[in-house]
């Protein structure tokens, strides 16, 4: 059994190394060219139509507001990886990994835009009158490939069990270490909180994440900015490290063991992709419920999601770790996940460690809430609303089991299960790329959408 698990681990590590990273990068570049560099050509317009419109009544039809759809999607992506994953990328890939994290984020915007546009384009109403959509719907309706949609839905529904167990274990371990509460107690409390929210459906989840995500992100990023201000003289050096060692190997320095350029690119790409989930097919499940007058308008919100998740939150972590110097201290390589806590503690004392701990708890909790919703939507697609209700209890049990470290063996299959949903989703995006391109051209050439929007701005000025 141990040898079998070792083989699974080796296969997963290889698969999520160059093979999938290359596939994702090429797919992202292809969509970027297909969309004529949308994310680079319209940055001001994108922010005007998203963050700049949060106090305006959304146009069109939907179940939740565009902001609620975005914050629900962000709840899944802003998690432990933003706090503990970034320092790991720096320790194993060097400071230059941050540059490649930015690059893959910019490329990944086209994939995230495409899958969110398709989710709205092929969404439908369920028996409760809620809008539902995602890869399983655009595979079935857009490609007429019901089997592929069924495969995606079933694979994601099952994959979320070990994923939720890992998340439950992460938050329970953090609570135990910081507050000395037994894992099963914290796991039960977390499961109860999650149940109160997820059984209220996407409307309740949207209302909670709308308040929750901006608050927790502002607290964490705000603390990171304070660290940068306190250490402002180090910022030029941090930028020098990031840009210089993105293209050349870095030798050993203190607790840092040194790294080759190939590993720098690999770790940067991997961290960016794991963090923002571009191409994975999860975020469009949330975006499909948004109130909008055109699929492309909601696609713009998904671009902003990557800006917030990777370019802001992950970058904040990277700058704190690099500017504080904790990454070069002796023993840093032994526990990279602790470096963010060490950096904040260096500047805020015990309060710094508490900021990281509380941020981690809330980030992971919000992730669990939304991925339980994602799993329920897969069950609904496959078997109906009753199955969606029942699977939530399975996920709640997984939180508690994970919090006490049960069934760690199945965690080994997590990366393989992720590949099982990623690959069919990428296939669907590429096969439907012409439809995404058509919708994009329609939006940006129509008097009803883009031309009308910029006409208003011209008159206002």
TrEMBL record:
Its main location: membrane. It holds the Pfam family Na_Ala_symp. InterPro entries: Na/Ala_symport (IPR001463). It comes from the Bacteria. It is found in: Cell membrane. Belongs to the alanine or glycine:cation symporter (AGCS) (TC 2.A.25) family. This is AGCS family alanine or glycine:cation symporter.
